[in-house]
Amino acid sequence: MSEMPEEYRSILVITAHPDDMEFGCGGSVAKWCAEGRDVFLVISTNGDKGSSDRSMTSERLAKIRAAEQAEACKVLGIKEFRILGYPDGFLTDNPQFQGDIVRAIRTYRPDVVVCQDPVRRLSLFAQHRDHRVAGSVALDSVFPAARDHLYFPEQVAEGLEPHKTAEAWVMGAEFPDVYVDITDHIDTKIAALRCHVSQVGQGEGLAERVREGAANLGETPGFAYAEAFKRLKYRR
Ligand SMILES: [Zn+2]
Q1: pTM for the whole structure
Q2: Which residues constitute the domain of residue 95?
Q3: pLDDT tens digits along 176-204
Q4: How many independent structural domains does the chain possess?
Q5: Ligand 1 mean position to 128 CA, how many Å?
Q6: What is the CA(25)–ligand 1 centre distance, in A?
Q7: Is residue 2 part of a domain?
Q8: Where are the alpha helices (DSSP H) in the chain?
């Protein structure tokens, strides 16, 4: 049984960095793809800061991360992905970035947008500002900007019609209200994460960490492994 309603055939995941989707909802994405739904991914930044290797350059890292992402998308079954290419670490809520996200929503016309949590939680010590900005702009774009024709009218003039998204699913939210059973897809999630070699190295301890996190989330719904989301519904 799927937690994602049967009628939702198209899902757009919007994140800050390459690998965010895999960590946050890779098992769910693998499941939705296996169910025959179209899953698209838009990544806001090029991830060009994520390295502790002092001989690494931002330019080289961005290329490596794009290649790793392409591999991970193949593993999961993602239909199409694009990297907007904003510099890692400085993602900013401004009309240009929002215009790019609105364009993606009007292009892919998803039933559901999956995004990151826009709220800084002081109970978590490590949080990336890009995640919050990407989450905030994604939600602002779902409602009202992608929906209303007077936002970014130049896109509408190009033929990109306004789009009403039915729901947003926020990953990593403090009070989740939907749990996806990823028990049959945890191995695919781990395999997709392993594609991000620049981030996870040879993946020592990765599988254990991922299984432990997913098992903790699975306690509430009674699944061996789960991912969790806060679900927002919009009037269509
Ligand atoms: Zn990230």
Answers
A1: 0.97
A2: 10-233
A3: 999 999 999 999 999 999 999 999 999 89
A4: 1
A5: 7
A6: 13
A7: no
A8: 20-34, 58-76, 95-108, 129-140, 153-158, 186-194, 197-200, 206-218
